[in-house]
Design brief:
The protein is an alpha+beta fold. α2 crosses α3. The chain is built from 7 helices and 16 strands. β15 and β16 form a beta hairpin. The strands form 2 sheets. Strands 8, 9, 10, 11, 12, 13, 14, 15 and 16 form a 9-stranded mixed beta sheet that branches. Strands 1, 2, 3, 4, 5, 6 and 7 form a 7-stranded antiparallel beta sheet that branches. The mean pLDDT is 96.
Length: 303
């Protein structure tokens, strides 16, 4: 990763329909998205110049904005093209791609009917999210001090900026205590996800994962479910309680940033960095690099 702050870099950011020099892609201090979290975003990865599941990310950005009450003036195809243009303008082939949309500064206060929607796309080099040794050693997680809220309290289907406040607090608490990340429970006390990635568990050859009823059914999550079923692995989406973690042999996280990253520890429970997890990590790598075809990220049957 480039050793520079994110506001002071060479390159270009696509913003409201045109490429701008990186340092000039700014918003006003009274932007509604800054004060009231009326912002949605995506995270995708490019491998060898190809952005994996790009249209799925673009569609989710549109859907998230709609859930938040504002319509983007761009189609899926136009957002896809903006992402490709940004990647090419920065001469990148392997990169993280961040589309983001927000309400502007035309109105201040909780109400936002007079604001205009804005959108930008940035991309940058970003290696393994948890570092190069994570795939070998597995991550250490503690239990987050914050919980995922009930779906009737916040728009859990949107990838909205405001929903990540407790993720940041939980990740800081984990890192301050010497862990890599945190496992977040939901408002019922059931296993939900990590601070920015979905979670899976292997038990006797069967893959278990929490039902995504109060957190995102991630695009990488869907891809891994499809890859597991391609190998004949039974995948069970269900409520998982923390006391069950002692019965699982392997565990891993999934996400566009995290990709497939094994876990070694969650609080008092330990896991193997086992063959089943490593095989799915390799399958996912093969998928995003185009060595596996015909596998699409299928939405959860439970959501």
């Amino acid at each position: 990763m480039i050793d520079a702050t994110f506001d002071d870099r060479d390159g270009f950011i696509w913003m409201d329909g045109a490429l701008k020099p990186w340092r000039e892609a700014n918003v006003h201090i009274l932007t509604h998205g800054l004060h009231y979290a009326s912002s949605v975003f995506e995270g995708a990865r490019a491998y060898g110049g190809h952005i994996y599941a790009l249209s799925a990310h673009s569609q989710r950005l549109i859907d998230s904005a709609k859930t938040m009450g504002f319509a983007l003036p761009y189609s899926v195809e136009e957002i896809d093209e903006a992402c490709r243009q940004t990647l090419a303008a920065n001469n990148l082939t392997n990169a993280y791609v961040r589309p983001v949309a927000w309400r502007g500064s035309e109105q201040m206060g909780v109400s936002a009917q007079r604001t205009k929607p804005h959108m930008a796309v940035a991309c940058w080099e970003w290696g393994a999210y948890f570092g190069p040794e994570a795939l070998k050693k597995g991550l250490r997680l503690n239990i987050a001090p914050w919980r995922k809220p009930a779906p009737y309290t916040v728009p859990v289907r949107a990838k909205a900026a405001g929903l990540y406040m407790t993720s940041t607090l939980s990740k800081h608490a984990a890192e301050d205590a010497g862990y890599n990340d945190a496992l977040m429970l939901d408002w019922r006390g059931q296993v939900a996800e990590a601070t920015g990635a979905n979670i899976f568990f292997f038990k006797d050859g069967t893959l278990h994962t929490p039902t995504p009823d109060c957190f995102l059914d991630g695009i990488t999550r869907r891809s891994v479910v499809a890859l597991a079923r391609r190998r004949g692995i039974d995948v069970i989406e269900r409520a998982i309680w923390p006391e069950e973690l002692a019965t699982f042999q392997e565990s891993f996280l999934t996400g566009s940033a995290a990709e497939v990253t094994p876990l070694a520890e969650i609080g008092p429970w330990n896991f193997q960095v086992g063959e089943a997890t490593l095989q799915l990590a390799q399958d996912y790598s093969d998928l995003v690099h185009g060595r596996i075809t015909g596998v699409v990220p299928v939405p959860s049957t439970q959501s």
